[in-house]
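Journal club side-thread
Mid-discussion, someone asked how the predicted structure for our own chain would compare to the paper's figures. Pasting it here so we can look after the session.
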Amino acid sequence: MGTEIERKFLLIGEEWRENAQGLLLRQGYISSQPGGTVRVRTADNQGYLTLKGKTTGVSRLEFEYSIPLEDADILLDQICQKPILEKIRYRVAYKGHTWEVDEFLGDNAGLLVAEIELTAEDQPFPKPPWIGEEVSGDPRYCNSSLSRNPFLHWGRK
């Protein structure tokens, strides 16, 4: 059994880009319910199937399995809910921690979110100067929510 403990933040400025290298991710959802999600993702010529439980605090159960890229592409194109999310993920090292910065594309363009995975909910960590407001508790910033209610549409009534 795996547990993911993750905190999310908005970004300030562009300083984080200095030595960041990005990787294009495509992901979609077979199921996206309040109690959990089933996600398909492609990254770097590999496919993944991920099951995530309900979030409690900043923790949730997570199980991830490698699947053939061809299978992942078929699932994304034919079975997953639309639209499919696309983003560039950057890994940025800062004082012994690795931050994952997601730069969203398509209907979520303009949204930048940084995540840090921790070993305990109360684990202290140094915040880089480019880290802004914490959005861990805001469900709008969950990827499954962004697939249903893209960032582009947040300002519209």
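Post-session note: The longest strand covers residues 21-33.
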